[in-house]
Structures are given as structure tokens and as C-alpha cells.
Specification:
Distance between the termini: 10 Å
Structural class: alpha+beta
CATH topology of the largest domain: Elastase, domain 1
Strand content: 15-25%
Strand order of the largest sheet: 3-14-15-13-5
CATH class of the largest domain: Alpha Beta
Number of helices: 12
Number of domains: 2
Bound molecules: 2-acetamido-2-deoxy-beta-D-glucopyranose, zinc ion
CATH architecture of the largest domain: Roll
Radius of gyration: 23 Å
Number of strands: 23
Shape: globular
Largest sheet: 5 strands, mixed
């Protein structure tokens, strides 16, 4: 929505008036990239695009290099030996995502006040997520995969034998699957078989299939604890990671760690907690530099979704002429063009470069351009934070979700300011009313300026 000139003037005037009034607030900082880098993600074997006969899920697979990943996915296809109901998708149209939150054992002894705050915040965040994101729902319960590299000590390698690529020996030290210190209950996990002889169908069940989680598209483990990271990062309320992806690359499980002492802090804010959970959840669902390379381009023929064809996106992020890394996907470009009112065809969504090694993408928007977006690295005053169209466009461009853009909240920061808004050159020219006023700092510092935002 465009502001009328008089409204624009009003916002600008408000900005100039209030720019000098800096209100110190505790900003919620996000350490997602650091946390995700430490997570060992289990990936299901890839599904061939457009081949409905291929079971989308073939068991656990982890791998860093493309080569070993290919080998392991073949391995896993053979290992899985039993039909997995979990990830076969219904051919119907996308439906609101069903996110199941599950509090870990270690988080079960919360005080009532803590539990109530947590529940209220998570419930509201999940409601927001499922109101904006839809997925092709899986048939049957969600069953997570086990990591073959953990439970198996030895794999049959002779391709002329019946059990080629199947696990021959169990790792007797195998205990359980974990993700970010969370132990995944056996009940959520698929089982695994061992084939002691190379050529015999005889198998031993090392672990049986769990029951899985019915009516679940994404499983969110909630871990409430005062962890080491909580202690060293006092501005962190929660942090997250994704744990597993399905055959199409979509994350199906993640962990959000909520720093326990923040729940009872005097400064606790329900709104801030809700926004923090939404923010971390969006990372786990795909807004992540660890997943950009797996985003898929899908034909958006919603009425014939069965026939939707998806292919890997060649390049999601790239550096622009000034060295800023941007997301160049169609919906993101379209949404940013609309927001800044620009027809610049190369208007990719700029990613944060502060505290990010050069040449490396961040999992947050550049705050000079998109301050107030739910996906900037620090969330300020909750009254200014928006689940904005550019963020939803990015989730749409993952290829895993259909988003309802009419539910996005309008971002006033930068609205209608043109393609150069937020670039350092305009800052030096002091041509923007939104920032670079005051002391000419290009970035919001650790204080929040109450400027440029109105209620949508
Ligand atoms: C592979 O298995 C076949 C059939 O059991 C056997 O004849 C062959 O010698 C094996 N090859 C190797 C390299 O062990
Ligand atoms: C999108 O959201 C709007 C507003 O809440 C709603 O009226 C509409 O039915 C939704 N569209 C879809 C496809 O769900
Ligand atoms: Zn973040």
C-alpha cells in the first residue's frame, strides 16, 4: 500500500522529530547461524522431480560433500527396506502447515508461570505460522529418520549380493538420535534393520518403528534451559536449528531452545517472546543460509498442484556491485519492488553484512533496508516488528510453502523510497528521512529509534 503524500510527510516529520529521542531497549539478538553450523542435519534421499512412483523418503543421510551425499543416498534407499508412510504427499492443494510442538523431558519441570508464558507465546507463534504458510501435507504420521552413520558400523559393499548397501553390523555404542542436545524419543523415529549375512534376507531389527506424530508437517522440539549460550549471550531469548529435511529438502523437524531464565525476567514481554519464536521458527522452516542452496523453483499452477514441477534454483544469493549479498528469487524481488516502489529488475533482498564474514550470506535481512522485518538480526520494540511481505516472499521462494501474502503486515520503514533505499551511498548523501539523521550512523545501534513505523 502506498502512503498518500500527506501521510508520507507525516511519517517523515515524525521521523525527524523522534530521531533524536533514542529509547534504550533490550534488543533480541539472534545467533541462529552460529547454532545451525554446529548441527548435524539428517537429509532424506532426494526425490526425482515429477516422479510420483518414487517414495519421497528413503531414510537418514548426512553428508557434507556432494559426492559422499550421493553415495549415501543410494545406500539409504537400500537400507530403508520398509515402506515409510511419513512423507508421501497427498496430491491435493496445499493446506495450512501443522506444526507440532513437543516439550523435551528436560523441560518438563517448569514452574507454572514459566509454562504458561511459554505455552502462550509458542501457541500464538504457531498460529501465525500456520495462517501464512501452507504445505502439501504428508499422508500418515511423521516419522523422523535415524542417522545410518551412527547406528551402523559396517555396510555391505559387494554389488552382486542381495544386501548390497544394507547395514551388516550394528554399532553397539549406538544410543539415540539427538539434535542440538535434544534427545529425540524413539517413538518419533523410524526403525532400522541389520542384515548379518551378505546374501541372506534374514534381518535383525535393531530398533522398531515408532508410532510417529499424526497430523504433523513439522515437529518443533522446545527445549527450555539456561544453556551456556544463554549465559554468554544475555540478549538472546531463544535460538534454533533445523534437524532433518524430507526428500524434497523441506525441513521437517527443528529445535528451539528457550533460555529459561528469560521466561521469569522482570522485563519479560509476551509480544517479544511471540516474535522471537516466529523468527526462530522461520529460520528452522527454511529462511536460512544453510538452506538457500536447496531452495526449489516450482511452477505455481495452484489449481493443478499435482502437476507442479520443481527444480533446484541455480543461485539464490549473489553479491551485488557494492558487495552486498542479496537473495535474487522472483517473489522476493517482486515484493521488494512493491515495497520500495521501484521497477529495478535486479532488486534482490539484501542480507545483513554486519558481523558476517565477507562473501558469506547471512540468514537475516539487511536492517538498513528492512528494519522492522521479523527476519532482521535484532528485533527491537515489538510494536515495530512486522511479519512482512518480503519475508513471506522468501518463504514462498523456498519452493516448500505456499504463502498467503494478503496476511503480511505492512512495513513502513522505507516504503516507497526507491531501489537505493538503505544503501550506504544514500546514507552519505543524507537524502533519507528514515535514518542517517541524528549522528549519521548508517545502522541502528543498540538503541531503537521510534521512527518510520505506524500501525498497519
Ligand atoms: C561378491 O559376491 C559374489 C556373489 O556372492 C561372489 O561370487 C564374489 O566373489 C564377491 N566379490 C567380492 C569382491 O567379494
Ligand atoms: C488469505 O488470507 C485472507 C485474509 O485472511 C483470507 O481471506 C483468504 O481466504 C486467504 N487465502 C487463502 C488462499 O487461504
Ligand atoms: Zn535469526
Amino acid at each position: 500500500m502506498l502512503l498518500l503524500p500527506s501521510q508520507r510527510l507525516w511519517v517523515a516529520t515524525l521521523a525527524l522529530t523522534l530521531a533524536v529521542v533514542e529509547i534504550p531497549v533490550v534488543l533480541q539478538k539472534c545467533i541462529f547461524d552460529e547454532v545451525q553450523a554446529q548441527t548435524r542435519v539428517i537429509r532424506a534421499a532426494p526425490v526425482q522431480p515429477g516422479d510420483p512412483s518414487v517414495k519421497p523418503e528413503a531414510g537418514a543421510q548426512t553428508g557434507q560433500s556432494g559426492k559422499s551425499r550421493d553415495r549415501r543416498s543410494t545406500l539409504q534407499r537400500a537400507l530403508s527396506g520398509r515402506p515409510r508412510r511419513s512423507l508421501r504427499e497427498t496430491p491435493s492443494s496445499p493446506q495450512p502447515i501443522r506444526i507440532h510442538s513437543w516439550r523435551t523431558q528436560e523441560s518438563s519441570n517448569l514452574l507454572q508461570a514459566e509454562r504458561e508464558r511459554l505455552q502462550a507465546a509458542v501457541q500464538e507463534a504457531l498460529t501465525v505460522a500456520s495462517s501464512v504458510l501452507s504445505v502439501n501435507r504428508a499422508l500418515g504420521p511423521l516419522l523422523l529418520s535415524r542417522d545410518v552413520n551412527k547406528y551402523c558400523k559396517f555396510v555391505w559393499r559387494n554389488s552382486s549380493t542381495a544386501n548390497y548397501n544394507r547395514c551388516g553390523r550394528a554399532n553397539h555404542n549406538y544410543q539415540s538420535e539427538t539434535c542440538l542436545d535434544v534427545t529425540i524419543p524413539d517413538d518419533h523415529l523410524a526403525g532400522c534393520l541389520i542384515y548379518p549375512e551378505a546374501d541372506s534376507p534374514r534381518s535383525i531389527e535393531l530398533r522398531p518403528d515408532g508410532a510417529g506424530l499424526p497430523r504433523t508437517d513439522f515437529l518443533l522440539y522446545l527445549h527450555v534451559k539456561t544453556t551456556h549460550k544463554c549465559k554468554v549471550e544475555p540478549s538472546v531469548l531463544a535460538y534454533a536449528t533445523h534437524c532433518q529435511t524430507d526428500g524434497r529438502g523441506r525441513p521437517v523437524a527443528g529445535v528451539v531452545v528457550v533460555c529459561r531464565d528469560r521466561l521469569t525476567a522482570a522485563a519479560y514481554s509476551h509480544q517479544t517472546a511471540v516474535q522471537t519464536v516466529i523468527h526462530e521458527l522461520f529460520h528452522a522452516l527454511g529462511f536460512s543460509r544453510h538452506l538457500f542452496h536447496t531452495w526449489r523453483a516450482c511452477s505455481s499452477n495452484a489449481t493443478h498442484f499435482k502437476a507442479a514441477q520443481c527444480s533446484p534454483r541455480c543461485k539464490v544469493t549473489q553479491s551485488d556491485a557494492t558487495g552486498q549479498t542479496r537473495i535474487y528469487t522472483p517473489s522476493v524481488i517482486w515484493a521488494l519492488q512493491r515495497h520500495l516502489v521501484s521497477s529495478e529488475p535486479e532488486l534482490g533482498g539484501p542480507l545483513e553484512n554486519q558481523d558476517v564474514p565477507s562473501g558469506r550470506a547471512s540468514s537475516h535481512w539487511e536492517s538498513r533496508t528492512l528494519q522492522g522485518s521479523i527476519m532482521t538480526a535484532t528485533l527491537g520494540d515489538p510494536a515495530t516488528v512486522r511479519v512482512d511481505a518480503i519475508t513471506l516472499a522468501a518463504l514462498q521462494d523456498t519452493g516448500w510453502y505456499t504463502v498467503n501474502l494478503t496476511r503480511s503486515q505492512s512495513l513502513v520503514w522505507g516504503q516507497g523510497e526507491g531501489s537505493l533505499f538503505g544503501s550506504l551511498s544514500t546514507c552519505l548523501n543524507k537524502s533519507s528521512a528514515f535514518f542517517c539523521t541524528g549522528r549519521g550512523s548508517a545502522k541502528p545501534t543498540n538503541t531503537l529509534r521510534v521512527v518510520g513505523f505506524t500501525e498497519s
